[in-house]
Specification:
The chain is built from 3 helices and 3 strands; from the N terminus they run H-E-E-E-H-H. By secondary structure, the protein is of the alpha+beta class. The protein has a single domain, classed as Ybab, Chain: A, CATH 3.30.1310.10. Strands 1-2-3 form a 3-stranded antiparallel beta sheet. A hairpin with a 4-residue loop joins strand 1 and strand 2. Helix 1 packs antiparallel against helix 3. The N terminus is likely disordered.
């Protein structure tokens, strides 16, 4: 009978420890996500003719276009450069998020 008591008691204490670790990990994740919202990265294309600024939570914040690019009137080129700059900016944002959130995933839980 004492063996059951120890087994269930140990299980209960271990469960509380795991729950505490999960709660701490959730708090760290939320903090990291809030920090990411405040950070900015940029992506560019066409030698800087189009630059896109992206937040750490992957929202496009601004687009800058070199006025000289507009003189050509090539809407297709402008669209292509915008897409390339936006994708570059989003990739940089993903790298930033991975750098902030990746270590939290590596903490590992004991189960």
């Amino acid at each position: 009978m004492s063996k059951r008591s120890k087994a269930s008691g140990g299980s209960s204490l271990g469960g509380q420890g795991v729950m505490k670790q999960i709660q701490q990990l959730q708090e760290q994740m939320l903090k990291a996500q809030e920090e990411l919202k405040k950070e900015k990265v940029s992506g560019s294309a066409g030698g800087g003719a189009v630059t896109v600024v992206v937040s750490g939570d992957q929202r496009i914040l601004s687009v800058q276009v070199d006025p000289g690019l507009l003189e050509d009137g090539d809407a297709e080129l402008l669209g292509d450069l915008f897409l390339a700059a936006a994708n570059h900016g989003l990739e940089e944002s993903r790298k930033l998020a991975e750098g902030k959130l990746g270590p939290l995933a590596g903490q590992g839980l004991p189960f």
